[in-house]
Every structure is written in structure tokens, then in C-alpha cells.
Design goal:
- There is one protein chain.
- The chain folds into 2 domains: 197 residues, MFS general substrate transporter like domains (Growth Hormone, Chain: A, Up-down Bundle); 196 residues, MFS general substrate transporter like domains (Growth Hormone, Chain: A, Up-down Bundle).
- The protein is 80% helix and 0% strand.
- Helix 4 packs parallel to helix 6.
């Protein structure tokens, strides 16, 4: 029986349900981004403690993601996805109800555990697609990320203030919890079980061997390290900007939400169609250093940009760079890996990215608290420029035809 024949019927509808599930999941996550700093500051958190809220979330995802994947292989995609969505609503409600900094850390960490369900969604896509159209199916997950990171921060910022101007920080979090509850109900009614009875469980554990193997590859290793450096630097900026906006500019959550929302809008525009034309004309290898330079410039300029159009332009430049560099690096990694090592190689790259998202904020918080508020952005920009310099020979090697 061919793979296409073995796939469940109604694949298009099922893929749409998976897409909607991931979108709602990520919108709920994005809502928290411009708010967690303000929540922590209510409890007199230091700069390091503020950024560690993002670190604990990312570390929890790093550990939990392969566990969710393995559980879905054993017990089915549907029950595991439903369980993660339901518990996400509970953890968001706990975060909104927190009365101490310790409670914020507890529920933020558990939120990370419960939202580490992207491997289940990817497994659903793999179940529902053939090898020929799998890349398009996985692209839906990427599009869901773009939508979630666009709508989430915007919603979080807009609903964080009462009509009289007083803070309403918990309101958007309750909205996020409500979205997760709606997501659970929709998935309960619409989401079918996609794992085929005759399919073999695919191991998705955290594998240091796989990461070391990927790093040793002459092309994949360089691209994975560039991905780590890019994500590390961007996470450092992302975790510190709300602090900077509050301390230096006196901005409110809605202002921060709109700025992060702008990055999402730019991402949708570029990854929604423009990136394909750019790759066709220039190739991924030439686009990577360009993207990294754009992110570096936008990040380094943030501390010196005045409010208004200049600051928005800096965010737009960062969004352009991210949208060019991210898919180009992923494509180079995928092309360099052999056909039977795609999952292992891309999984290793994702694991390295998760580590970068965990440790970038921690370093950013240390620098912010120990030096000047603008220092984390300058360090981030410098790391990205270093990455752009390394990307030129690295990606040139990746673009050479195999011999």
C-alpha cells in the first residue's frame, strides 16, 4: 500500500483543523509576550528575574517537546493534543491569577511544558501528507507561527488597559486562557485521530548524539550554529526590549504589543510569498548574511531610536531580516541533510534553537542589570554581525554542488 493510499481520507479538512489548532495555541502564547515583564515588575522583579521568565518557559519546552512527541506516537495524536491544549488553558489561568513572583515562574514553566505540543502538530501533518507534499504541509505550521506572533502581542497589548487608562494586565491573559478553551472544544469536535494503526513510532527524544552529529557535518553544522547565534541574539533583544521600553521610554503594554506585532506583519508579507522570489533570484546562501545584517542593524539601533516612526522602522528592519534569514537557513540545513536524516537533522537544529531561546534572555538580563539599558541590544547586534561574517564562507560552502 502506498503512502498516499494509506493516508486518512479528508486530509485537507484535517490539515485545516491542525492549522487552526496551532494558530489559536500560538496566539495565546503571543498574548503573554508584551505582558510578562509588566507582571513581574509588579512584584519588584529584577531585570534578570524578568528575563528568566522567558528562560524557564523555553527550557521547559526544550525538555517537554520530545516527550509530547513520544506520547503521541504511543497513545495517538488526538488525545495528547487535546490534553496539552486543555492544560494550557489551566496554566494561563494560573498565570493570570498569580499573587507572587514565585507563582509567575511556576505557571510560566508549566505553560512552557503544555505548549510544547508543536511536535504533535508536525506529526499530524506527517500522517496526513505524502512525501511529495509534506514540505507544503509543514509550511502551514510556519504560517501559523507568523499569525500567532502577529495577532498575539497585538491583542495582549490592546486589552492590557481599561477604558479609563488604568492597567488591566490580567485581562489579556484570561482572553488567552479563553482561546485555549475554545481551541479545546473545536479540536474535540473537529480533530480526527491521524496516527495510522500500522505506523511505527518515531523516537523524538532529546539526542545529544544527534546534535553532535549535526554539528560535525561540514555544512549542516555551520548552518545550525548560525541558527543558534541568530536565535540567541534575537531572544536577548526580545526579552530585554519590554524592560527598556518601560524604563527608558515609559511605554505601556499596548505600545510594546504593536511593535512586536509589526515584526509579525512583516514576517507574513515576506514569508507569505516574497521569500520564494528572493530565493529564486539570489539563492538561500546569499540571503542568509543579508538577513543577519538587517537584524543586526535594526537591533543595534533600537536604543538610540526616538519614539515614533524611527523606532518602528528599526522593528521593521529586524522583521525583514528575520523573515529572510530564518527560512533560508532552514532550507540550507534541509538540503544538506540526506533524505533518511531529515527528521534527525532538523530536530537537532530545533533543539539548538530552543537552547538559544533559553539562554539568550538570561544573558540579556545579566547585561541589562549590570551595565546600561542599551547594552544588551549592542551585544545582540554585534553577535549578529559576527554571524553575518561567518555566514559568507559557511553558506558559500553550502551552495556548492555535491561531488
Amino acid at each position: 500500500m502506498t503512502e498516499a493510499a494509506a493516508a486518512p481520507k479528508g486530509n485537507g479538512k484535517a490539515l485545516g483543523v491542525v492549522f487552526l489548532t496551532v494558530v489559536l495555541d500560538l496566539v495565546g502564547f503571543g498574548i503573554v509576550i508584551p505582558l510578562q515583564t509588566f507582571f513581574a515588575l509588579q512584584f519588584n522583579a529584577t531585570a534578570l528575574q524578568v528575563t528568566l521568565l522567558m528562560t524557564c518557559y523555553s527550557l521547559a519546552q526544550f525538555v517537554a517537546a520530545p516527550v509530547w512527541g513520544q506520547l503521541s506516537d504511543r497513545f495517538g495524536r488526538r488525545p495528547m493534543l487535546l490534553a496539552s491544549i486543555a492544560m494550557t488553558a489551566v496554566m494561563l489561568a494560573g498565570f493570570a491569577s498569580s499573587t507572587s513572583l514565585a507563582m509567575l515562574f511556576l505557571f510560566r514553566t508549566l505553560h512552557g511544558v503544555m505548549t510544547a505540543n508543536i511536535p504533535i502538530a508536525q506529526a499530524c501533518v506527517a500522517d496526513l501528507t505524502t512525501r511529495e507534499n509534506r514540505a507544503r504541509g509543514m509550511g502551514m505550521i510556519g504560517a501559523a507561527f507568523g499569525i500567532g506572533f502577529t495577532l498575539g502581542p497585538f491583542i495582549g497589548g490592546e486589552f492590557a488597559t481599561h477604558a479609563d487608562g488604568s492597567p488591566a494586565l490580567s485581562t489579556p491573559i484570561w482572553i488567552a486562557a479563553g482561546l485555549s478553551a475554545v481551541n479545546f472544544l473545536l479540536a474535540t469536535v473537529l480533530l480526527p485521530e491521524t496516527r495510522r494503526p500500522d505506523s511505527h513510532a518515531e523516537r523524538r527524544s532529546i539526542s545529544l548524539t544527534a546534535m553532535v552529529s549535526a554539528l560535525k557535518h561540514p555544512v549542516v553544522g555551520l548552518c545550525v550554529m548560525l541558527t543558534f547565534l541568530q536565535v540567541f541574539a534575537f531572544a536577548m533583544m526580545e526579552s530585554c526590549f519590554t524592560l527598556f521600553a518601560h524604563d527608558v521610554h515609559g511605554l505601556e503594554p499596548k505600545d510594546v504589543g504593536r511593535m512586536f506585532g509589526l515584526i509579525g506583519v512583516v514576517s507574513i508579507v515576506i514569508q507569505g510569498g516574497l521569500i520564494g522570489r528572493l530565493v529564486k533570484r539570489f539563492g538561500e546562501a546569499k540571503l542568509v548574511p543579508v538577513g543577519l545584517v538587517l537584524v543586526a542593524v535594526g537591533t543595534a539601533l533600537l536604543p538610540s531610536m526616538p519614539l515614533g516612526a524611527p523606532l518602528l522602522i528599526a522593528f521593521g528592519v529586524m522583521g525583514m531580516g528575520q523573515s529572510i534569514a530564518n527560512p533560508s537557513l532552514s532550507a540550507l540545513i534541509s538540503k544538506a541533510a540526506s533524505a533518511d536524516e531529515q527528521g534527525k537533522t532538523l530536530g537537532a537544529a530545533q533543539s539548538m534553537s530552543a537552547l538559544a531561546r533559553a539562554f539568550g534572555p538570561a544573558l540579556g538580563g545579566l547585561i541589562y542589570g549590570a551595565t546600561r539599558p542599551g547594552a544588551p541590544f549592542w551585544v545582540s547586534g554585534g553577535l549578529l554581525l559576527l554571524g553575518a561574517g561567518l555566514a559568507i564562507p559557511a553558506t558559500a560552502r553550502a551552495s556548492r554542488p555535491a561531488t
